[in-house]
## 1
Amino acid sequence: LGFRMGLLLGLCFSLLLGSTSAVDRGNFKTCAQSSFCKRQRALKPGQSPYRALLDTLELSDSRLTLQLINDNNKVHLLLELYRLQGNITRVKINELKPLKPRFEVPDVLVGEPPTEPLSVLSKDDNGVVLSLGPESQRLIVSARPFRLDIMEGPQVLLSLNSRGLLAFEHLQLRKNTQVDPEGAEVKENVDGAEQQGEEEKVGVRVHGWRIYFKYCLKKPNLFLFLGPTSVSLDFSLPGVEHVYGIPEHADNLKLKTTEGGDPYRLYNLDVFQYELYNPMALYGAVPVMLAHNTQRTMGIFWLNAAETWVDISSNTTVFGKMLDFVQGSSETPQTDVRWVSESGIIDVFIMLGPKPSDVFTQYASLTGTQSFPPLAALAYHQCRWNYNDQEDVKAVDQGFDQHDVPYDFIWLDIEHTDGKRYFTWDPHKFPQPKDMLQGIMDKRRMMVAIVDPHIKVDSGYKIHNEIRDKNFYVKNKDGGDYEGWCWPGNSGYPDFTNPEMRAFWASMFAYDQYEGSMENLYTWNDMNEPSVFNGPEVTMYKDAMHGSWEHRDLHNLYGFYVVMDIANGESDWSLFVCMNAGAVWTGDNAAEWEHLKISIPMCLSLGLVGISLCGADVGGFFKSPSTELLVRWYQTGAYQPFFRAHAHLDTPRREPWLFGPENTALIREAVRQRYALLPYWYQQFYQAHKTGQPVMRPLWVEYPKDTASFAIDDEFLIGRDLLVHPVTEEGARGLTAYLPGHGEVWYDVHTFQKHNGAQNLYIPVTMSSIPVFQRGGSIIPRKLRVRRSSACMENDPYTLYVALNPQRAAEGELYIDDGHTFSFQTKKEFIHRSLTFAYNTLTSRNLCTESNFSTKSWIEKVLILGASKPKKVTLQMDGKETSVEFEFDASMSVLTLRKPGMNAGADWTVKLQ
Ligand SMILES: *[C@@H]1O[C@H](CO)[C@@H](O)[C@H](O)[C@H]1NC(C)=O
Ligand SMILES: *[C@@H]1O[C@H](CO)[C@@H](O)[C@H](O)[C@H]1NC(C)=O
Ligand SMILES: *[C@@H]1O[C@H](CO)[C@@H](O)[C@H](O)[C@H]1NC(C)=O
C-alpha cells in the first residue's frame, strides 16, 4: 500500500560500521555546545521583556492578531490566535517585519485547519478575555508582561509565557556587513565580531556571527548576513505531573525533569550505538508532547523543523495568584516545559483533550493518521545485513519452511546493490533478481530491498547524472552541489524538498526504471536523517541550501520529504513502499537486555504521537544475543506492531533454527502466536488509520484515572483488549504484572484463567511464557491454522474468543479486506462487523452498510470465556435455526462452540439457552 504521511518525521533505518564501543558522546552536541540552546537556557524566568500592544488588536471571525513589543530592543512581533475545530488553539508568533521571510513548515498539515469563531468576552488595559466556545473555556491575553492562559471555569489548564521565557531572536544585519548596491559580493569584516553566534563543531566560517542566511536579493551573489534566529516559549501545566511523547529518545515513557541535565533534543541523527535513558537526539523527531492527569489529557504540537530542545521541570506552586479568575490558592503540582528551536517561527497547537482519545483525534485532524499497512507488513520480517547472494536468500527461505516458521518478508540491505548504487543489483551476487523474486513469490512471500537517499557521485551512474543535470542536488553554501561521505563513498544528496525531485524519485520505482524489480519487491528507506558520515554530528551542514532555505530550517523534515511522494502512491509506479511513513524502528539497538526493555517505552512514545507501526530490531542489531535473550526478544517482538529481526554484518548468523530444536520451537511458537493474531492486528491498524488512535497503548490511555498506571512501561495494551507483559529480565522465574480496571476481569490467553483487575498479579514464568491477557468484555478474532505466510492464510477460518465481563457481556469487531490494495477506500471493498455478546446471545452485525466485500472465510469455532453451561446452543442465520455442538470446561468456565459454520461476512445470531 502506498502510505499517507502526515507526520513531522525523519526516521529511517540506518546502519553504521563500527566496533563495540558505546556512543561517542563527543560526536553529538550537548545544550552547552549548541550555542542557541546555551544562550536560551541562560535566560532566567520572570523577566519577560514582552508586552502586548492591546490597541493593535484585530479580530476577524476566527483570527485574532495583536502586536507584541520587546521593551529591550523595541522589536515588534505579531501574535496570531486561532480557535480551531475540535478544541484546538493555535498560537503563532512571528516577527512583524522580518528582514526576509522566516521558515514556516509546509506540507506537514493535511490542510488549513478549519476554524471556529472567536469572540471577545471582555477587554481592558490589562488584557483581553476570549471565549473558546462551550464549557466556559476561555483564553486570556495578559498585556504586561505578555502571557496567555487557557482556562476552563475557574481552572487554569495551561499557560504560555507564564515564566517569561518567550524569546524571539529577530533577523538583523550583521553590524559590519556592507551591502554593495552594485550587487558585488558582500564584504564582511570579521574583526571584532561579537562572540554570540553559532559555532558548528565542524565548519566554523567566521568567529562570532555565522553566515546565517544567504538571502538572494536582486542579483544572485548578493547575500545578507543575518544573526541568530532562535525562538523559545514556555508552557506551564498546573496540576500535571506526567508528560509523555516528543520521540525519538531512548528513555522511559514518562518524561523526566531535565533540571540539572540536558534538555530532550529533537534533531534527526544517525547515532552509532546510542545510550539508554538519556535525552540525546536519535533518528527521528516528532515535536508533540502529551500532558496527563486524572482529570484531563492535553497535547502541545510545536510545528518547527529546526533543531529543537525541550526542557521539563516540575514545580509545586501556588498557582495563578496574578489572575483574578483563579480561585483558591492550594498547592498544586505543576510541570513546566520550554521549547527552543534554532530557527523558524513559533507555531504551536494546543490540543485540549479532555480525554486521551480526544487528543489523538485532535492531532490526527492536523497531520493525518497512520497509513493502513498491508496485512503482510504486520507479519514477521526476516532481515540481516546482509543476505549474501541469491543462493543465501533461497537457503534462508527454505530454512523457514523446513523448520515450520512462518515469515512474510525477507530484506536485503545495502550489499545487494552494485557498489551502493541504489536501484541496481550486484551483478555477481544477485545476477537474476527476478528469478529470486519469483521464487519468493511462489511461496506467497515478499522481499524488501534498500534504497538510500544518498547518490554515488559517479559519472557512470545514470541516476547521479540525471539528478546533477536537472540541478536537483542540495547545494552547499557556495552554490555548488553538496557532497558528503556515505556508503558509496562520495555522495550527492538529492533535494527532496523540491517537488520535481520527488516526482523524479518516485518515477525511479517504475518496473521499467528499476530493473529487476517486480510486484513483490518493496522498498526500505534508510539513512534519511540525512546520514552523512563526515558531516557535523553525522549529518548535513546546517548551511547547505534547499532552494532559498537553509538545511538548518528544515533538517527534521528531510526524511519526511524523502518518502513523501513515493509514499503517496500515485499509481504510475507500482512498487510498494513498505517501510516508511508508517513503519519505523527504534534505531540501531544492541543485543542487550536493557535494549529489549526499552523497546517498549520507545514504541509507546511513538504510538502516542501518531506512529503506530513501530518495532525494535529483534535480537538487537549490534552484538550477539544469548539464546535466552533472542527467544525473549522474539516473544516480545511478536506482540509489538512491527516485527522484524535484524543484525549487524559482523554478528554471527541467527536465523531462528540455529540454536537447537528446543529454542527453535520456542521461537516458532512466538511467531505462530503472531500469525494467529493477525486479524486483530489488522483491525487495530484499520482503526488507527481511521481514527488516529494508537495501536500499542500505554495503560493510562485506557485507564486515565488510574494513577498506578501512569508510569508503567514494562507492559502495554494492544488496542483496548490485550494486555502484554513480556518477559524482559534475564533468568526470570516470575514477574509481576499490573492488571488495571476496578471491577474488571482479565483472562490469561493461554490458560483462560480469570483474574480481577486493579491488582498486581505475580506470574510464574518459564522459557515458553509470554504473559498476555484478554480484557473481560471483549471479542478477539484469531486464525489458528498458521501457514508459511499471511497470504496463505487468506481464506482460512476464524476462531472468536469472547471474554465475558462481570456483567456477562462482551463486544468486538471483525475487519476483513483484500489485505493489500486501496479498494477498501476507493470501492468500499471490506467487511466491517460488530460482534456483541449480551443476554446469552452473540450477534454479528454489519457496521458499514455501503461496504461490499465477500470472504471465503467462515467461523470455525467460538470460545466463550467466563461462561456457564447452557442446555442448548442455536444458530440463527438466513431465517433458519440450527443447533450448534458445544463443549463446556467447568474448571475454567470455557464454553467452546464447534463448527458453527457461518460465513465471516454474514449476519448471524448464536443463542445460549
Ligand atoms: C471539547 O471539550 C469539551 C469540554 O472539555 C468536551 O466536552 C468535548 O467533548 C470536546 N470536544 C472534542 C471534539 O474533543
Ligand atoms: C515555580 O513556579 C513559580 C511560579 O511560576 C516560580 O516563581 C518558581 O520560581 C518556580 N520554581 C521553580 C523551582 O522553578
Ligand atoms: C458488490 O459488488 C459486486 C461485484 O462487483 C456487484 O455485483 C454488487 O452489485 C455489489 N453490491 C453492492 C451492494 O454494491
Note: Residues 1-21, 179-223, 569-581 have pLDDT under 50 and may be disordered.
## 2
Amino acid sequence: MTAVSSFRSTLSHAALGALAGLLAAFAALAVAELVAGLVRPPAGPVTVVGGAVIDRTPAAVKDFAIRTFGEDDKAVLQLGIVAVLALIAVALGILALSHRRAGAAGVLLFGVAGVVSALSRPDSTGAGDALPSVAGAVAGALTLYVLASKAVPVPADAGADGEGTAGWSRRSFLAAAGVTAAAATSAGALGRFFTGRQGQGAVASRASLILPAPASPAPAVPAGVQLKAPGITAFTTPNSDFYRVDTALTVPKVDAGSWRLRIHGRGVARPRTYTLDQLLARPLIERDITLTCVSNEVGGPYIGNARWLGVPLADLLKEAGVRPPSEGGTADQLVARSVDGMTLGSPVEDVMDGRDAILAVGMNGEPLPFDHGFPVRMLVPGLYGYVSACKWITDIELTTFDAYDPYWVKRNWARRAPIKTQARIDTPKPFGRPAAGTVTVAGVAWAQRRGITRVEVRIDEGPWQDADLAAQAPLDTWRQWSYRWNAATGGHTITVRATDGTGLVQTEQRARTIPDGASGWHSVFVTVP
Ligand SMILES: Nc1nc2c(c(=O)[nH]1)N[C@H]1C(S)=C(S)[C@@H](COP(=O)(O)O)O[C@H]1N2
Ligand SMILES: [Mo]
C-alpha cells in the first residue's frame, strides 16, 4: 500500500464520519421538530437556541444586525445556528469513527444546550419545553453511534478478500445512511405538519373575526396629506409593507377565542380579565397613528403609519380604579406582557393624559396581521415602539419604574423614550443621478404628539430654504414635505431638518439609536450628470 492510497482511504473514511455526523444532526433536529410539533412549536431547538441567543445579544450587536440584515435578521441568525451546528456535527462524526461513545456523548451535550435554552426563554411553559431537545439529542446520539459502527475503514493490507469486506461494509453504511435520511425527512415533515395544524385554530379565528364599526371614527384626513412626487412614501403604509421589529423567531399564532387580557397590579382597585368579545363590545375608536422604532437610524425605514381600531386604554384603566401619578396614583409604570414573554413599560401618566393610547384590534381596516400582534396590541402615540407597542399582549401590570425593568431596559435601553423630531429625504435616493433642472426633493417628517410646523432644505453649504408642507393630518402622524430644487451639474449634498409644534428645531447633534433614539439631520449625496 502506497502512502498516497493510504492517505486516500483515510480521507474517504473521514468523509464517511462527516456524513455520519451530519446525518445524526439532521435526525436530531427532525425528531426535535416532530416532538415540538406535537407538544409546543415554539419549543423547537432552533427556535429556543435562536431566542436564547437574541436574549443574550448585546444591544449594540442587535442594533448592528437590524441595521445590516433588516427584517432578514432572524433568517440570518437561524442560518448561522444551522451552519455552526453543521460544522460541529462534522467534527463529532469524525471523532465518532475512533471514539464512538465520545461522539455520541457530544451530541447529547447539544441536547443539554437546547434544554437550557428552552427553559431560560421568557415564554417557557415549564419542563415540557425540554422534551423536543431531549428527544432530538437521544435520536442524534443513537444515529451517530450506529452509523459510526458501520463506517469501517478499508484495511491497509486489503487484498482481494479485504476489498470484498470493505465494499460490503461500505454498502451497509450507505444503506443505514439512506434509511436515516429518509426517516429524518419524514419526521421533519410530520413535525412541520403538526406545527401548521396548531396554528390553524388561530388562523380560523382571525378569518372569522368581524371588526365592529368605530363609535369614534378617525378624523377625516385632509386631501392634501399625500404629495404626488415620484418616490415619495405613501401616507398610509399598507399592512404588507409595514416594518416589523420583534424578538419572535416564530410569530405567535394566538387563537382569538381563548385569548385573555388581565389588568392587575399596584393601585388596581378592581383587577379584571377581558375576553376579545368583551373588548369588541365596548365603544371603539379609530385613529391614524405613526409608529416608530427606536432602532431607526437617521433616514431609516423603521417607521410606518396606519389607521388603527381599538379600545381606549385609559378607559379600561379608570374602570379598574387606576389613577395617574398626577392624581395621586401609586403606579408610574404600566408593564405590558405578550404571550411570548416580551415585556414593555410605558409611563402611566402618558397613557392616561388624554392621548389616544389604544388596545388595537384592527389595522387599516382588517384584523391585526399575525406579524403585527393579532389579536390585540398596544399603541401609545408619541412613544417609541419598545416602550409602548406590545404585540400579542396578554397582561397589563401596574407597577413603578423603580420596581421593575422590562426586557429592553434590562438591555441598556432607556426607561422612558418619547419619539424624537426627525425628517427623512425619500427622493432622490442616496447616490441618485437626477437630471439637471428642476428636481423634486421630498420626504416625510415626524414629531408625534407635537406635529410638524416647518421643514427646511439645504443644498451643500447654502442657506436653509423652506420646503412646502403637505396638509397636516392629526398630530400623531408624519407629515410629507417637498422642495423644488434647481439642480446644477455636479455632486451635491441635500440636507433636511424639521421644526416641531413646540417651535423646536430638530437637533443637528448626532446620536446613536441606543439608548433612546437616533438624532441628527438626514442628508443625501447625489450626482447631477
Ligand atoms: N411582543 C412583542 N411586542 C413588541 C416587540 C417585540 O419584540 N415583542 N417589539 C416592539 C418594537 S421594538 C417595536 S418598534 C414595535 C414594532 O411593531 P411592528 O412590528 O408592528 O411594526 O413592536 C413592539 N412590540
Ligand atoms: Mo422598536
Note: The domain at 422-528 is CATH 2.60.40.650 (Immunoglobulin-like).
